[in-house]
Structure formats: structure tokens, C-alpha cells
Amino acid sequence: MTLIKTKIGRRSFIRTSTLASGGLVLGFNWLASCKNKTEEEILAMPKEWFEMNSYLKIGDNGVVTITTPNPEFGQNIRTSMPMIVAEELGVDWKNVIVEQAPYHAEKYGMQFTGGSRGIMTRWEPLRMAGASARHVLIAAAAQAWQVPANEITTEDGMLYHKATEKSAGYGEMASAAAQITIPEDITLKDVKDFKIIGTSHKNVDAKSIITGEPMFGMDYQKEGMLIAMIVHPPAFGMTLKSMDAEAAKAMSGIKDVVAIKSFKDDYEKGGFDVNAFPEIVAVVGNSTWEVLQAKKKLNVEWQPFDSYTETINGFRGKQTRNVPSGLESSNSHEAKMAELAAKPGKIVRTDGNPKAAFKNAAKIIERSYSAPFLAHNCMEPLNAFAHVEGDKAQIAAPVQIPSLILPTLASSLGISAENIAMEMPRMGGGFGRKAYAHYVVEAAMISQKVKAPVKLVYTREDDMTNGIYRPSYHATYRAALDENNNLTALHVKAGGVPESPLFANRFPAGAIDNYMAEEWAIDSNITIGAFRAPRSNFMAGAEQSFLDEIAEASGKDPIQFRLDLLNRAKENPVGERNDYDAERYAGVLELLREKSDWSATPTNINRGISAYFCHNSYAAHVLDIRMDDGKPVVEKVVCAIDCGIVVNPDAAINMAEGAITDGIGNAFFGELPFIDGMPQKTNFHEYQMIRINDAPKEIEVHFVENEIPPTGMGEPPFPPIFGAVANALYKATGQRHYQQPFVTEKQIVG
Amino acid sequence: MAKFNLNINGKERELDVDPTTPMLWVLRDHIKLVGTKYGCGIAQCGACTVHLDGNAVRSCQLPISSVGDKEITTIEGLSEKGDHPVQQAWLEVDVPQCGYCQAGQIMTASALLEKNPNPSDEEIETAMNGNICRCGTYTRIKKAVKIAANSINA
Ligand code: FES
Ligand code: FES
Questions:
Q1: What is the pLDDT of residues B102-132, one digit of tens each?
Q2: Which CATH number describes the domain made up of A2-210?
Q3: ipTM attached to this prediction
Q4: Atom of ligand 2 at shortest distance to CA of A378?
Q5: Planar angle of CA A170, A66, A185, nearest 5 degrees
Q6: Which ligand has the shortest distance to the CA of A460?
Q7: B85-153 is classed in which CATH architecture?
Q8: Residue of chain B nearest A687, judged by CA positions
Q9: A689/chain B closest Cα distance in angstroms
């Protein structure tokens, strides 16, 4: 059992009101969540609710409402977070209703969905929420029965006192429990006693999803709501010059055409205040179709903007960003990247004497890897509802980090942050893109200008060509081998447009005596940001392809080669800043070797292996490719993951399957090239997404079983898939693949 | 603007809209049935799939003027209680991640099974290939289609 201080989460335990009697006023979300329940279950709704803490309410009949704090975008935290609360509370999952929290920093802290941090950061507070409620329920029963609290046991929402044969449901004690002070220390369950955590529970929203209930930001409706759409420059590096909106305004159903500048000129931006175009235009009207027609009638002139420098006050403190002027093209990016890759970069880490090791090498292998910009392409295009009335604003939008857009909204609207209420509907995918919520500011500014509730909807084209993209990257690896083909030195130099993807302290750093890591970057006005496992999603592919090649050159089995390096890192690590646990890393590889039956490759199958550590978790894949008439077919992927305790196994498997499939899609086809600042793909007829026929025929996911508190799950299985694809393609075609995407006309496979 | 009488999910609806308006926006903006999703607007993603007299069609490409008296079924009308065999199979396999594409996936799959209650893997892939899922739930989709086929044939 673990004793923890409730103080850590004190702020999350604010009770909004002490409810001696009288129910709570229930919001829209509560009603929506009721629809998941059968009629009998709805009839069984309590007459009164009692608030135990910000995360949970107990009804007089024992039904429990658990508030899930973070926004959902498909990782199924609306199920797994409440599961954690329910576990410690000790209730029957069937009696649980899930409610989505609105944005409320005081109650819920950082409601951040991203960086695979959801379950990891909520693990303790959510357990505490359940355990402290259980504690006050027991205290209430002890008082009522006049027995010592430590003689009371609980199970499935019931309280028992064995000696006196007394029992009561949580609902019966909820009223008294709500009056009892939460103690300073709380005892949590022993991991071994978990009944809910570690057992698969179905997605609480599945029924709503498969019946088409309104739940996404895109589905938001309000009486009198207008539709707004944007018109933005055709090329990065441009902004509004002038517009003639007469013809557009004269179209049927059109209310207004307005120019929008999302950020005030003197506003100090945070790390997620990214926006490609300083000023854009919005068309506002009664219906989507009418606005779409009017967009075409708008005459806008755009002009290139001048270069500028801005200060960003983000997670890494204040940083300066140079935004050059000009219209950029992928060709010139590639040429510049090759040029910088050939020059010395900024040295970030050196171990031993790499220079000497390379000088004395019997053999040097040098390879360069590159990858293009990628668009997020969430299936739900960007959208936001806003209603600004005087000094108040109501927002409902798919956002990953509501807390970070709030100050921007307040600044741009000129109203105080306390007067902005924000709901966080389900996101139809996020993948990092919905962390950059400029579209919410746009919607709010439009609403303020037209004085009406407005839903801003991006078309697919707007979404794809007004992106905050995955940067374009480049990495050069060099390895020194001695005459016995032992790896004696490794040198990595990585960079990109406009940031470096390097993680200097990750494996194989720490496993090689002589090591050097360098980086460089090229300024750009093409906006970039987080994309499922930022930077890792490139580095994993490059590093794991290179290690595969070195293993081959050393005449070693690729899994054994990695395990030998990890063994070195474990036994006698080089340097002190290595940010991975060599034992856990080796653990996933060993599990994978066993589960994939690595030594017995099936006939006609070409296997690639790859592993990576990121977002505090370890993931490794064996990917099987069969060539069918020159076309690679992924027959099977076997995956091993160590993310600590797995809260909801089948949901975690679903996410791993998704990461694998998404990764194969991006590795095969993903790219967004630019010419003269213009994205060369605008919709799915040009941007190739993975479809069902290219998806793996079979995926198997295995978890390392341990009792370590849970770490990231949404991102870790994604990066290593790029290496697994490259290494399997090599086996299948005899050619190494260095440039992403791998399956294009440029790089004919086979 | 023009007047139309539509049959949507078994109900008569009278509307006065621009005759070029695609059914996708008629459903979402005018009738407030938002289960049918916008994903691309150019017949590439399948998020907007509905049934027109039982056939899976892309509602983003279907002007209201071309519907006539054909019956339109949307995800909201696929079954009364959300218990169509395809919906049940989707629950059994717990297919969705974000869920945005799933209405379209289910409408495509249910139209497929209506015509071909016993599809091969290849036939499933061919029928479902027009529906993109960025979350990558394809292996589950295939499994669920097979389970639904089995329950229809049972
Ligand atoms: S929205 Fe109709 S096919 Fe994509
Ligand atoms: S479940 Fe998210 S796009 Fe399919």
C-alpha cells in the first residue's frame, strides 16, 4: 500500500459547494453521457447528488459520476481516467457515469492532452480522488454505526462491518460523507489488488459514436449560430494586402466579410501561439454551402511579409524566433540541408575521443536520412464555436491545451480570462495539431466583430494548407568499426527546417565509448509544431535504420546487436545524462524476440525490426513485408511495449494498432512538398493517406508486465515503425531506404 | 432557393434551400443531423457516407436536387436502437478511436453487407477503401465487418 499526501492535489479537491441537501444542476454533458446508458439505467438515476471532490459525485442510490479532466481525441482517456478513480473508490463500473470537465484550471490543473502525458500525470491525482472519497464514505459509516473505521471494508460500492453484520451502499452514506473533511494522508490500493485497472473496459463513448450523436466540436450547434470560413494566403510568407468583398457580401445568406489578425502586435506569444499568416479574411453567413460559394467570389490581394524576429515565452523559457521573408520551396530546403549537413554543427554531446576513433577505424560507414514536411490531416478539420457578448465569451472547441489559448483569447478579445468559459468537446483526432488553437481565437474575433454566435469551419483545403506541420528533417550518421567489426564510435549530426530533431542523450548514447552529437537548423516561415511524437518520429527511423546497417556490417543479428549495446549501457554506461533505462529497453526487445518468433522467419516474408524510447515508454516492432507484384504488403506487425501499468489493455492495444498503421502510412506515403511557399497538396486526392488495403493484415501487441506507474502510450509505438518499415523494405528489395516517404514513384520499391 | 420534399430516415422533411446544396450540408446545417461527417468534400474520404435507396453514396457529392423521392438513411437512422448488426459488431470489437470517421465506415460496411452478406477479405478491402481513418483502426474495422457478416448469416 502506498501512503500519499492529498496536499499534492489539494487544489483539485475543491468542493464547489457543500451539499447537505438538494441536487446539483446538471449540464449538457451529463445529459449526453446518459444517452450511453440503457433506459433502465437512466430510470435508476439518483434524486440527489453529493459531491465528494472535483472528480466525483455520488448519488443517493449509489450511482457515481466521474468527471474526466482532460480533453479526449481518441486515446480513450474518457474511459481510462475514470477507471482509475473507480478503482480506488471501489465501485462497480456499471454504476459509473462519465462526465467531461469543462476548462477549469483551479479544479483540474493543466487539462493538457498531448505528449503522451495524460495518464502519467493524472495517475496520482485520480487515484487520490477515488481513495479520498472512499475514505470519507468509510468515516461516515463508522460514525453512523459507531464502529472503528479500520474495521469497515468496501466492495463494489458497498460498505461492510463484519462483526456487527452491518452494510450500506455508498449512496446511503454519501450525504454524511460529503460533510467530512478529507484527511492529510490517504492510503492507496496495492497494485496487486486492482480489479478495474488492468482489465479491458469498453469505450464509454462507443455507443454515441456508432449512432452518430453530436459530440465533436464540428457538431456544435446553437440557436442563431452563423457559419464562418477563412480565406488565407495561397503561400507561406504572405499576408493580406487588400480585399474587395462586394461580390461576396452580395451572395445569398452572407452576413459579413471581415479581416482577422489573431494576435495583437505587442502580445508576447506562448509556445503554442503559432500562426502562419498574420492577417486573413473570414466570410460569415447562414450556412456552410452559402459561405463556400461566397468564398469563391472574394477578391483578395496578398503580399509577401517582411522578415521579423519574435520572442516566444514557452515551456523552454523565452526564445527568439527568426521568421524570414520570401517564398520557400522544398528543393531549396533540400539543397540547404545538404549544405549544412556537410558543415560542422553545434556540438551537443561528446563522449570519449570520437575524432581519434574515426581516425583509427578499420571501416567507416556514413549514411544520411531525410524526411519531408507532414500535414496532420486529422479527420475532423479545424473548427471552433465562439459567442462573444460584451465582456463575456463562450467557447466550445476541439483543443488539446485549453489553458494555453486562454491568455491569447483574453488579449485578442480584450476581455478578462475569468469571463471566458470553455467547453472541450471530443476532438476528431489531434495528433498535435489541435494544440495550436489559433482557430479558436479566429472564431472568437469573428463572433466579436459580427456580434453573433459563430462556428468557424476550416475546409479540408484550409486545414491542409494552413498547417502547423511536422518539420522537414535531415540526419547524418557515421559509425567507426575496428578490424573485428566492433562499433568503436558513433557520430550523429541532425538538423531541419526550422528545427533540429536531435535527442543527444538517447540510445545509443551511453552504449558507445566514443560518441558525438551535433545539430543545426534553418530558419523558415513555414509554420511547424508537434506531430505525434515530435522529432522522435524522424530520429527513430533514421537511427534504427542505421543500427540495422551497422549490425549487418558487423555480421550480427539485429536484435542481438541492440541487446549487446544495451547491456553495455546497463553494466557500464558512458556519460551520465543518458535518458533511458537500458534494462527496460532491453526488456521490450527480449519480449519482442520471443513473441515474434524472431528466429523463424516465415517463407516469402521479409522482416524488419526497430525499437525506440520516447515519452517515458519503450516500444519495439517486428514488421513482416511480402512483395506482391513489386508492391509491399504488410502481412503482420508484432509489437512489444513497456509503458508501466496498462490501465485499459484493449484500449491501449487499439492505440498501438493505430500508431502502427498511422506510422506505416506516413512512412510509405506521407509528404507535403512546397513550391514558392505553396503547399503542393491540398486535399486527399493529392495527399496519400493509408487506407484499409495498405494497412497491416494482422497486428499483435504485447505489454511488459510490471508495477511501474503508467507512462506514455499514444506516441511511443509511432516512431519506431518508420525504422521497422525501412528495415523490412531493405530485406524485401535489397535496397536501403534513406528518404521518406519510402513508397513513391521517385523511389520505386523492388 | 427551391422547395424539396425529402424522405430521411423514414420521415418526410420539407426544405427550402439552394438546389445545388450537397446533402451533407443539408443534413448537417438544415436538418441538424450531424452524425454524417465532413472530411474532404471531394469524394475522397467517405466520412459523409449515407445510404440512398440502400446504396452507399458520398453525401458531399449529392446535390439535394438530385435526390428526388429516393430514401436517404443516415447513421442516426440505420437502426432504431443502435443495434444494427454492424453497429453491434463495432461495439463488440470496440473499433473507434477518435470516432470521427466511424459513421461513414459503418454506413459503407452496412451497405456492403446488404449486397454481399459474405464478403471475402479482398471484397471488404475493396468496399472499405474509400473510407479514411487517420487514427488507423482498419484492422478492427475488418474484424468487425466479418463479425457482422457472421451474425447476419447466422
Ligand atoms: S466528405 Fe464526402 S467523401 Fe469526404
Ligand atoms: S477513428 Fe479517428 S479517424 Fe477513424
A1: 999 999 999 999 999 999 999 999 999 999 9
A2: 3.30.365.10
A3: 0.99
A4: 3
A5: 70
A6: 1
A7: Orthogonal Bundle (1.10)
A8: B44
A9: 7
Work out whether strand B71-73 and strand B49-52 pair parallel, antiparallel, or are unpaired. antiparallel
Beta bridge partners of B52: B55, B72
The Cα B87–Cα B98 span in angstroms is 16
Fold exhibited by the domain B2-78: Ubiquitin-like (UB roll) (3.10.20)
Task: Please report the atom of ligand 1 found closest to the CA of residue B44.
Answer: 3
- What secondary structure does DSSP assign to B22-85, as a single string? BHHHIIIIIS---SS--S-SSSSS-TTEEEETTEEEEGGG-BGGGTTT-EEE-GGGS-SSS--H
Q: Does A216 touch chain B (CB under 8 A)?
A: yes
Q: Tell me: the pLDDT tens digits for A254-279?
A: 999 999 999 999 899 999 999 999 99
Q: What is the pLDDT of residue A41?
A: 54
pLDDT digits (tens, 9 = 90+) for A377-417: 999 999 999 999 999 999 999 999 999 999 999 999 999 99
Interchain pair B129, A692: CB under 8 A = yes
Residues of chain B contacting residue A662, judged by C-beta atoms under 8 Å apart: 134-136
Regions in chain A scoring below 50 on pLDDT = 6-36, 748-750
What is the three-class DSSP state of A439?
Answer: helix
**A380 Cα to the center of ligand 2, angstroms:** 9
Per-domain residue ranges for chain A? 2-210, 217-308+382-457, 344-361+367-372+469-733
Chain A's closest residue to B63, CA to CA, is A289
Are residues B98 and A429, on separate chains, in Cβ contact within 8 Å? Answer: yes
CA B40 to ligand 1 center in whole angstroms: 5
Please state which CATH class domain A344-361+367-372+469-733 belongs to. alpha beta
Are A426 and A73 within 8 A, CB to CB?
yes
Checking DSSP bridges between strand A514-521 and strand A487-497, what pairing results, if any? Answer: parallel
Q: Is the CB of B134 under 6 A from ligand 2?
A: yes
* Residue in B93, B94, B92, B126 with CA at minimum distance from that of residue B108: B126
Q: Cβ of A431 under 8 Å from any chain B Cβ?
A: yes
Does ligand 2 lie within 6 Å of residue B115's CB atom? no
Search chain A and give the residue with CA nearest B30.
Answer: A287
Is the Cβ pair B139, A213 closer than 8 Å? no
Say yes or no: CB of residue B49 within 6 Å of ligand 2.
no
Distance B57 CA to ligand 1 centre (A): 10
Q: What is the CATH number of domain A217-308+382-457?
A: 3.30.365.10
Cis status, amide bond into A82, omega within 30 of 0: no
Domain ranges of chain B: 2-78, 85-153
State the cell numbers at A480.
567507426
* Spatial distance between the Cα atoms of A307 and A278, rounded to a whole number of angstroms: 12
